[in-house]
Amino acid sequence: MADELRTSSLLNKINMIRLYKNKDLEKLVAILRLNTPEYFAVSEEKDFIKYLEHHSQNYLVVEEVGIIIGSGGFNYLDDGKEVRISWDMFHPHFHGKGMGSKLTQYKIDEIKNNSEIEMVTVRTSQLAFKFYEKFGFELIKSVKDFWAKGFDLYQMELKIR
């Protein structure tokens, strides 16, 4: 039993999800750059920084043994019934290892705790929309070259009530 508790405690330290702090900015910008230009356009960096400076109240950071490996957030929209998932990214070393799924499910579960919320939306690109389909998001519309040349908008919705 003691070994199980130690293992469980270690796992919690390895994969910690916490709220964003201003001191995380440089590390998160570095992760964004590691994902540019494969998943993000160069021009999006300033938008990401602006987002963190003004809309980060529900932005989450994922750590493994105290090292930031990824992040993603959500924001309540003005109607009070919709939440938008925003700026999900991980260090490329952690792509395909389930960390993005863990963070996305964590956010969906947190959002579902608010009984007022009926819809979760995500505005992503053609490069990541299949990921969100795994969670039940449905494609509503797409716009070619929306984010930047070669980065199309894929707007998706998940009805939760």
Distinctive features:
7-stranded mixed β-sheet, 161 residues, alpha+beta, 5 helices, Aminopeptidase
* Uncertain residue ranges: 1-12
Structure classification = alpha+beta
CATH level-3 fold name:
Aminopeptidase
The number of strands is 7
Count of discrete alpha- or pi-helical segments spanning 4 or more residues: 5
What is the approximate shape?
A: globular
Helix content: 25-40%
Mean pLDDT: 91
CA(first)-CA(last) distance: 40 Å
Largest sheet: 7 strands, mixed
| Assigned CATH architecture | 3-Layer(aba) Sandwich
Strand numbers in spatial order across the main sheet: 1-2-3-4-5-7-6
CATH homologous superfamily title: Gcn5-related N-acetyltransferase (GNAT)
The tally of domains stands at 1
